[in-house]
Amino acid sequence: MSDRILVTGATGIVGSELVGLLVDEGVEVKAGTRNPALARDLFDPEVEVVELDYRQPATFDAAVEWADRVFLQPPPFSSDAYDTLAPLLDWAVQAGTEHVVALSAMGMEVRGDLPIRRLEKHVASLGVDYTFLRPNLLMQNFQRDFLGERIRGTGVFAMPVGDAAVSMVDGRDVAAVAAVALTGSEHMGRAYTLTGPEALTHHEMAEVLSEVSGRQIRFESCSDEEMLGWLTGAGWSPEVAGVVIALYQAVRAGVRASVSEEIEEVLHRPARSFRTFAQDHAEEWR
User: What is the pLDDT of residues 108-123, one digit of tens each?
Assistant: First the structure.
């Protein structure tokens, strides 16, 4: 019998794609999410959907009870990933989980002070096999939430990044790497930095979005304070908004511009380009 896999954050950008890939592979998969109703609409009936709230230990048992392998997705832009997820990890290992594929973030190997790096270290200390995936910012952010809404509504988007380039990665590629790691053994004990095939400025990305959508989309740089005000005004908590601003500061500092070939190493094909992503989703911005 093949390994049984729990996908946490199953309705997110990476998690939802990953569930589909695992189903296509014929893997027994369980989708853990705070929103079971949404997950049941998203996935085939053969996917078992279970409520999983990282802050509610009462939901842990049903999620991890049979999981041989776990895909661990921290809450997006979480400022307390370690405190939130370490108890779930401990619970899963005690229940028999043998392999954890943890979604982290680019550059965490040199950021020992951050909650996600502390979480990585905790995973490594548990005595189980593990794989760390460290993606750059996801291209899908241009479709969703605050950024996607601004582009669709006004044709203009602003972020505090100036002219800095960033090697954004397609979330579909991140999910594909996760699927390979979860269904084999050759990637255990490895950490992969996942980027797109090139680094582009946001002005360049706006040009691509304009070309594929057939409408003028423009990027404007802004200050950290302006972005913080927009995010909190849209209902984001100050803590989460602060994490987002810190990510943009890293982009502005140039530390998110390097390009890794590790997606190609794992998948034996190139990473998707921003243009490919934009062409595939052009209707989003028309």
Answer: 887 667 888 999 999 9
